Prior knowledge:
Blueprint: H1 3-9, E1 13-18, E2 27-37, E3 42-47, E4 50-55, E5 59-65, H2 67-128, E6 131-140, E7 146-156, E8 163-164, E9 169-173, E10 177-182, E11 190-191, E12 212-219, H3 224-228, E13 230-231, E14 236-242, H4 243-246, E15 253-254, E16 258-264, E17 271-276, E18 285-287
Parallel strand pairs: 10-12, 11-12
Antiparallel strand pairs: 1-2, 1-5, 2-3, 3-4, 6-7, 6-18, 7-14, 7-15, 8-13, 9-10, 9-16, 12-14, 16-17
Amino acid sequence: MEKKYLERLVGKYCKIVTKEPGQERATVVSGILEDVDYKDGFILIDSNQGLGCLRINTIVAIKPGTKRRLEKLNIKDQDEAVIGIGTLIVFIAMVLVAAVAASVIIQTSEQLQERAFAVGKQTTREVSSGAKIIDLTGYTDENKTRIEFLAISFRPRAGSYDIDINETLVYIELDNLTVLSLNYIDNDVVKANVSKDGVFHTLNHSKLNSTNFGVIAMRDSDGSITRNYGLGREDLVMIIVNVSAAFSTTGGLPAGEEFMGRLVPEIGSETIFLVSAPNAFDHRVVQL
């Protein structure tokens, strides 16, 4: 076969018919013609079995074609596509993991922010809220030997939220601890006006016992104290404590004695007060 024909076929897919001397049948080899060595008389062909050499003088015929060449190229393209799809799957998985992680982090941060806001608000309310005691006044028995009733005047401290008197407790301690609370069932222990005989004659003393105190609204412009026991910022309230009932063993607070007390609202810090009786009572109404 002439040189000029073989050179045209280099790099192309060909079907090569060969017949060795002494063979009765020809053999067909399909592959890409890679090179022609005229000096040694061989051609180099890349077939499905790999690279191989054929003697030029055994070639009977060569039929060029493109079908198998395209198949090989397609196989290569498909291999690259498979690698690309795998990379894409890994990338999508990384994006999904990052999105889930980001969602968890954002959700957690929002919950922590809401929790911190709620805790901060509650802490601020606890710290800022509370009652400020304005005055402590005692009322003795007829013989002026002991204090029978105690009047505690207080209002919300500066910056405090409203105080629910209905949920306010008074702790007093002489020999033992006594807890007093508002008797919210009987309205006789809540008065809006002071009697002409004074604060200690405003309430019905029979309603005051060792566990209940009475309430007098000293300043209640909006009626919140008498309506729902709410003590606002501009309000002033006085509670009357039956000391003789609370300290039943002594019948009250004797001269020269003292006791500790705490005013504890539902929300906010407690207020501690000290009641100290003088050694002698000149009048029935005593400033403590």
